[in-house]
Amino acid sequence: MKIDAQGVYYKDLNNQIRSAVASGADKIELVNVNGQYFIGDGINRPVTITIKGVPGNDLGAFMNGATIVVRDNAQDNIGNTMNAGKVVVHGHAGDVLGYGMRGGRIHILKDVGYRVGIHMKSYQENKPVLIAGGKAGDFFGEYMAGGVLVLLGMFSDDPAKPLHGFCFGTGMHGGTIFVRGGVDEAKLSREVGVFELTGEDRQELEGYVKEYCRDLKLDAKEILRENFVKVLPRSKRPYGNLYCPMPR
Amino acid sequence: MKNNLKPTHRFEKDISNCGLTGFISKSGKLVEGSVIIKSIALMHDRGNGLGGGFAAYGIYPDFKEFFAFHLMYESGMALQLTEEYLAEHFLIDHHEEIPTRRNAAITNPPAFRRYFVKPLETAEYKEAREFQNMTDEDIIVTHVMRINNEIEGSFVVSSGKNMGAFKGVGYPEEIADFFRLEDYSGHIWTAHNRFPTNTPGWWGGAHPFTLLDWSIVHNGEISSYGINKRYLEMYGYLCTMLTDTEVVAYMLDLLIRKHGLSPELASMALAAPFWDMIDSLPEDERQLLTAIRQVYGSGLLNGPFAILFASNEGLIGLNDRVKLRPLVCATKDDFVYMASEEAAIREICSQPDRVWSPRGGEPVIARLNPGVI
């Protein structure tokens, strides 16, 4: 099913998408999208929505099982509190990706902005994974509580840009960040430490990267050829002693 | 303090944010107003109808030697007093009503007139030039401050050469319709869609804020407004627009025009890096930034912001140092675009050569090519 979004107001577009989902569509193609907010929000069925054009903010928020494929760049706040499903972006994406995400996958081909993976969390079998193929801005993994962030730094439009920004992992107290080629330790927050991958980690990472490569038609071997490091929080309660010492 | 008989503001609140967009043709190609309207209208929902505005450069080529004063009048008395003031201090080459179109969305608009002026060689002018070392620009700034402060119900909306600001209470596309912006062509345009957070939504409080040919549109909150305002008062800048963003326009005038800082250095003063970052820089940069933070501590803008500032020199985009508001830039041929959302750029430039998000505190500077104006 194809929907032409040219000049369509976001509420009308989202109503059209929801009624297509309700009537049982498996595949929805949106063409001429430009800036419409909230696409795919709260969708509970495993439908695939393909987007041509640049979707607006809060793409895939509260999404629960659908797949969104963006053929172009995307904006801010993708996958806010997303529960399950997948967002694939064949370009770059903006700030605050995967905010409070608690399941599913976000696969971005190129650069990502500030505060990516902020307060991602996981619970039992729900383990969100966000992979950025390009470079990242400041506050990567801010207040991260669970799940997995992977930063590759390979597919950037800006070769001069550093792999990641300042305040990496600020407030991080759970989850794992894998970074291809190593991190700039001067830009890490005090709450995190850098570790080598175990065999188990490597296996886990390989699984994520292979899925990412299937979605974006990339060569997993090329990505996995380089060494990765693992960034973990030093404490589960980084601010426990902020105001007064807490009993251990 | 001015006392207005009629309330000039509404106090409703609403869930939204602010939106801004702007572009420059570095070679000075003139672009019709309809283009910027299309870009800002795409971000309609970032505002709430309590403020919209535009700044346009290159729109008055026939009067480019004159300061173009856009005046807003809340009463006939304000108009009369201001015109007397202007006649006393200025040679007025031409003046007229700013053409407007009534539309249903715009309620209670004030009156708008424009004046193309040069300072008159009065005794006061000669005193200022010869004994107080003031330039024509300094004298214009003094007059703007006096009109805004001393004439009740009269506000200078803009005062630069070959440029003008058009702003008011409404969504930006409604304000554009009201001011017939499709009739203007300029080589730099900026636009703002306002969601007033903690200051009133009134005609003077809409963006852009201007002084001479500086114009500022801003998304965010200047939490340091009080410190910035008091600092500016020491240099004769008086805040009258009841909105935090006003300080940015005056601060840039002070830093760049009066103190001779480059736009890069001025940006470092407004969005200075944190001390621990400064301490990690090479020695010369560390010394430079330390000096800027020490000298311009009261010029630092605290709080979240993305701003576009334009002048007859070019267009600059700047984020706060931790990037708490969005800003996306793009280039296409000799055009540079800056907006809150990439979609607002794509709406008027579907295939940019390059699209990127600048780092927090890192200005994006697009200058007009030499000799364009």
From TrEMBL, chain A:
Which CDD domains does the UniProt record give?
arch_gltB
Q: Give every Glutamate synthase alpha subunit C-terminal domain span.
A: 29-185
Q: Which superkingdom is the protein from?
A: Bacteria
Report the InterPro entries cross-referenced here: Archaeal_gltB, Glu_synth_asu_C, Glu_synth_asu_C_sf, Glu_synth_lsu_3
* SUPFAM superfamilies the UniProt entry points to: Alpha subunit of glutamate synthase, C-terminal domain
Question: Which Pfam families does UniProt cross-reference here?
Answer: GXGXG
Q: Which PANTHER family match?
A: TUNGSTEN FORMYLMETHANOFURAN DEHYDROGENASE, SUBUNIT C (FWDC), TUNGSTEN-CONTAINING FORMYLMETHANOFURAN DEHYDROGENASE 2 SUBUNIT C
Protein name as catalogued:
Glutamate synthase alpha subunit C-terminal domain-containing protein
Q: Which organism is it from?
A: Geomobilimonas luticola
TrEMBL record, chain B:
Q: What UniProt keywords are attached to this protein's entry?
A: Glutamine amidotransferase
Glutamine amidotransferase type-2 domain sequence ranges: 18-373
- Superkingdom of origin organism: Bacteria
CDD domains named in the record: GlxB
What is the protein name given in its UniProt record?
A: Glutamine amidotransferase family protein
Organism of this sequence: Geomobilimonas luticola
Instruction: Please name the taxonomic classification of the source.
Output: Bacteria, Pseudomonadati, Thermodesulfobacteriota, Desulfuromonadia, Geobacterales
